[in-house]
Structure prediction request, 176 residues.
Amino acid sequence: MPHDVLSQLRQLTALPPVALLASAAVLVLLIIVAARLVAPPRYERKERLFSPAEWAFFRVLEETVGSEFRIFAKVRIADVLSPKQTANRRAWWRAFSKVSSKHVDYVLVDRVTGVIAAALELDDRTHDRQDRRARDAFVDRAFAQARVPLIRVKAGRNYQRRELAARISQGIAGRG
Prediction:
């Protein structure tokens, strides 16, 4: 071994045992912290798919239209509509990326044909925020361009089945 390495080893062994122990502890702590920073996050199970308000609405929606439509919840907008094909592939991807990470609360699909009849958004007070209003305006425009009815329902404590059925019928008929 070169002389410098031997002298460094002698200096380390000359440290008091407490200093060596403290240095080792710091080194172990640094390794643990580094491992946590590098390790991917772990996943945990969510207890429920729906918020209490979403679940209450879903149950009324199911009672109201369940015999005519299948109800799908938390559907990615890109699974309901997509940008029209264009020669400009970058523009298409840009438009697709705007809808690929957004969801609608519910989608009604005809039980017999499987055709999408409408989408529903349950608007709670978070939809009053500026960022949500901009998101909602974009979603409204996208659904209108694709000619897919988007029915917005104000979140509440109670829902009247007859009133909800009328709103859905009007929305699907293009009057709501």
In short: The first strand starts at residue 69 and ends at 76.
